[in-house]
Design brief:
By secondary structure, the chain is mainly alpha-helical. The protein has one domain: Butyryl-CoA Dehydrogenase, subunit A, domain 3. The chain contains 6 helices and no strands. Helix 5 runs antiparallel to helix 6. The longest helix has 37 residues. The protein starts with a helix and ends in a 6-residue tail after the last helix.
Length: 147
């Protein structure tokens, strides 16, 4: 029975709409950001504990934590790009053009790609969901962020 259902879906063009694909992409991106957040939380806390015990000044502490703080900032930027992309998609679903969405998604791609380098800098493996999210967002609108 399943081959018949699949054939019927292909024949009638019942595949996902562009808006459904966009939502799946944003959902995958949000999950990827959450994975990075969880994967870095313990490392951040451990690095902070070591740094605070081994420095004499706050300036030294900030120097030691620079790479970890960059990850935290990168996560904030990725979340902001996700919110902007979702707002653009919501407007598109509500009947407006896809312009806001297509303008925001490249910035999401750039922010997710930046996380890859930041994770590598502190020796954290890049999670597969992050790489997949980058591929998905790039497939929609590229990676030329004009903000």
């Amino acid at each position: 029975m399943r081959p018949i259902v699949l054939a019927l879906a292909l024949w009638c063009g019942c595949g996902p709409t562009a808006q459904e694909t966009a939502q799946r992409t944003l959902t995958a991106s949000a999950r990827a950001v959450a994975v990075v957040d969880v994967n870095t939380a313990q490392g951040y806390a451990a690095a902070a504990a070591v740094a605070i015990d081994s420095v004499a000044t706050m300036a030294e502490y900030h120097d030691r934590m620079e790479a970890w703080n960059a990850i935290e900032q990168g996560l904030r930027i990725a979340r902001a790009a996700l919110y902007a992309s979702q707002a653009g998609l919501d407007a598109w679903i509500a009947g407006e053009s896809d312009g806001e969405f297509l303008a925001a998604v490249p910035c999401l791609t750039v922010s997710l790609a930046a996380l890859v380098g930041l994770l590598m800098e502190v020796g954290i493996d890049v999670p597969e969901p992050l790489m997949k999210a980058i591929q998905m967002t790039e497939a929609i609108a590229g990676s030329q962020c004009n903000v």
